[in-house]
Design goal:
Helices cover 56% and strands 6% of the residues of chain A. In chain A, strands 1-2 form a two-stranded antiparallel ribbon. Chain A is mainly alpha-helical. In chain A, helix 1 runs antiparallel to helix 2. Chain A is built from three helices and two strands; from the N terminus they run βααβα. Chain A is rod-shaped, with a radius of gyration of 21 Å. Chain A has a domain of 55 residues. By secondary structure, chain B is mainly alpha-helical. Chain B folds into two domains: 399 residues, Sodium/glucose cotransporter (Up-down Bundle); 114 residues, no CATH class. Chain B is 75% helix and 0% strand. Chain B contains 23 helices and no strands. The longest helix of chain B has 50 residues. Chain B starts with 14 loop residues before the first helix and ends with a helix. The chains are: A mainly alpha, B mainly alpha. Chain B: Pfam families: SSF. Chain B: Its main location: membrane. Chain B: Keywords: Membrane, Transmembrane, Transmembrane helix.
Chain lengths: 94, 566
């Protein structure tokens, strides 16, 4: 299985993991604000419904889906391909 | 674009909002730092662009354009003109992006150029190249300055920072993440920005729509305010074009805004095309703008709709709409919506979204400037034949210099906003003849190098002449010989630029010598073997990987959208 030795998943560096992490953190902060926060707008009126709570939940769901996608179909990094590409010189524009 | 300094717009941010904004910036800078270290070959692999899936480059493609002008400007248009604003997307951007992917990208990618001006040099030689590269580089500096100014201004207005402090802090952040990670980190960040912007604007739209009683309620309220038909149906859009005759208004929209201005912008603007060039194969490069077109066609719902809702919900905006003589600045519409509808928490997310959008714009301008400066100007005309590392470091210095110049431009913009608006209009005129020259050059092998640059220059001049003869397009420079003003005048100027460019190119080609056909392979359609436009390594593409099939689906969808909002 030598050809697989140089192949591994992109792991934390997958762009989907970044997106999931940021949206997940945003979601947690918003949900907590929705539960414990004041729900008041800058002009002092109560916001309709509880936007922090439902947007926070929506972001958490989105983050879970993104991360699920990244885990179900991981991006495979091929070190050999990488080395070959580098020998051909740096990509100029593409 | 002028944002008010009114303290009325100072938003009551609290620590939760600052926390959300801070988290976002940690991510933005973190990507730059990780890309810089490149300790991980995985990241290296990603950032080199070669494994970037098409949905990533596609999102980066529209994110680079989702800057201040798009978000603040289009919501302002939404507040002022209503539904006709969708033409910027459904007649303008989306068809142009599909066209770029199907027709023009094979030339850009297949000819292995590093920039759009470089294509110009190979096809038409140095004079046309210089005209293009110089005007592009200068325009990017200017627009980077405007984006920076708006970024600093919004920080000043909503957070209460001094303008100069915001200017420098904002410039440093953009500088950090463009120099740290280069183009690749910029693309990574742009994808992130896209989601932050959507996460901020989509809830704002939903909350706003909910408050006015859904789309039906919004229509009723706009009709009740006396702006019914013109604001609620996309055609003929006479309020947007300021051309009274409906037939001429439609022609102005389709040909001026759609065919010339938008095609000119999207197909020749290197800021955009650069994203697609970072793809791993020719079909992936083609797919980038086409995939980007799908989210792009739904952006109107989260930028134009909040503006329209502000027009009935925010008393200041509604009052300004009723009184046509008022000097109210519609660019503030979105900020009013954020102020009135969002509680702390969502407020921080919305501010992060706005900051993300303005930074995306500036970073894209700066990274495109960097490439064109180091390869198209410095390497081609000043210091030739040095190793790659030399030009990389020239690029870093160019980025630094561009940021400093942008701070200067932004300071100038804060004093002379009208001049900046006119300059921006003027630079818009460089795009219209560019599209004519490119499309002629790609499909007409006889077109000569001399025709290339004379067409460009005369087309640009034609646009300037039309604007000078119009009313108010270039401020006091416009003489008002004919009563064209506002957006309509820009559309007509673009159209004139296109026609003059084509006529001059044809006439000059008749009397000058063309390039030998052997030098035009990959640059002109009829002289390029079909295999050059095809990657053998790609194997057989499934239907959803085929650029033409995807573009066809996109075209049908955008036509349906056009019909729904007729």
């Amino acid at each position: 299985m030598s050809e697989h030795d140089n192949r591994h998943t992109a792991g934390a560096f997958d762009v989907r993991t970044f997106i999931a992490a940021l949206m997940g953190v945003f979601g947690v902060v918003l949900v907590l604000t929705g539960i414990f926060g004041g729900n008041e707008t800058t002009i002092g009126t109560k916001a309709d419904g509880n936007p922090n709570l439902w947007v926070g939940i929506a972001l958490l769901v989105f983050a879970a889906v993104m991360q699920g996608w990244a885990m179900a179909r991981p991006t495979i990094v091929d070190e050999e391909q990488l080395a070959r590409d580098e020998q051909e010189g740096p990509p100029a524009g593409h | 674009m002028v944002l008010a300094t009114e303290s009325a717009l100072r938003l009551g941010t609290n620590w939760v909002d600052y926390l959300l904004i801070a988290i976002y910036f940690v991510f933005v800078l973190g990507i730059g730092v990780m890309a810089r270290r490149a300790v991980s070959s995985s990241l290296d692999f990603f950032l080199s662009g070669r494994s970037l899936p098409a949905w990533v480059t596609g999102l980066a493609f529209i994110s680079a354009n989702l800057g201040a002008v798009e978000i603040v400007g289009m919501s302002a248009n939404g507040a002022q003109y209503g539904i006709p604003t969708v033409h910027y997307f459904w007649i303008g951007a989306v068809p142009a992006m599909l066209f770029l992917g199907v027709v023009m990208m094979p030339f850009y990618y297949g000819s292995k150029v590093r920039s759009v001006p470089e294509f110009m040099r190979m096809r038409f030689g140095p004079t046309a190249h210089l005209v293009n590269a110089l005007s592009f580089a200068i325009a990017q500096l200017l627009i980077a300055g405007i984006n920076l100014f708006l970024l600093a201004k919004i920080v000043e207005v909503i957070l209460g920072w001094q303008l100069w402090v915001s200017l420098i802090v904002a410039a440093l952040i953009v500088l950090a993440y463009t120099t740290l990670g280069g183009l690749s980190a910029a693309i990574y960040n742009e994808v992130l920005q896209f989601f932050v912007i959507v996460a901020a604007l989509l809830p704002l739209t939903i909350i706003g729509l909910n408050k006015v009683g859904g789309y039906g309620g919004l229509k009723d309220k706009i009709t009740a305010a006396g702006n019914g038909h013109a604001q609620l149906s996309s055609w003929p859009g006479t309020n947007l074009t300021a051309i009274d005759n409906p037939v001429l208004s439609v022609l102005g929209l389709v040909f001026g805004l759609g065919f010339v201005l938008s095609f000119g912008y999207w197909t020749t603007n290197f800021v955009e095309v650069q994203r697609a060039m970072a793809s791993k194969s020719i079909s992936a490069a083609q797919r980038a703008p086409i995939i980007g077109a799908f989210p792009k066609m739904f952006i109107p719902f989260i930028v134009i709709f909040p503006g329209m809702i502000a027009g009935v919900l925010v008393s200041a905006v509604a009052k300004a709409k009723a009184d046509s003589g008022s000097s109210f600045d519609f660019n503030n519409s979105l900020l009013y919506m954020i102020r009135d509808l969002l509680p702390n928490g969502m407020l921080g997310l919305a501010i992060a979204g706005l900051l993300a959008s303005f930074m995306a714009g500036m970073a894209a301008n700066i990274s495109a400037f960097n490439t064109v400066f180091s390869y198209d100007l410095w390497q081609t005309y000043v210091v030739k034949d040095k190793p790659d590392g030399y030009y990389l470091s020239v690029g870093r210095w160019a980025t630094l210099a561009a940021t400093v110049v942008a701070i200067g431009t932004a300071t100038f913009a804060s004093q002379y906003q009208n001049i900046m608006n006119y300059l921006q209009t003027l630079f818009g005129f460089f795009n219209a003849p560019l599209f004519a020259t490119f499309i002629l050059g790609m499909f007409w092998k006889k077109m000569t190098p001399t025709a290339g640059w004379t067409g460009l220059v005369s087309g640009t001049l034609a646009a300037i002449v039309v604007s000078v003869l119009g009313t108010d397009v270039l401020g006091s420079l416009s003489t008002g010989v004919w009563s064209l003003s506002g957006q309509g005048a820009s559309f007509v100027a673009a159209l004139a630029a296109f026609i003059v460019d084509v006529v001059v190119s044809v006439v000059v080609t008749m009397v000058t010598a063309p390039k030998p056909e052997s030098e035009l392979r990959g640059l002109v359609y009829s002289l390029t073997p079909k295999e050059d436009f095809h990657d053998d390594n790609e194997g057989v593409l499934t239907w959803y990987q085929k650029p033409t099939v995807l573009a066809g689906i996109g075209a049908v969808m955008v036509i349906v959208l056009n019909i729904i909002f007729w």
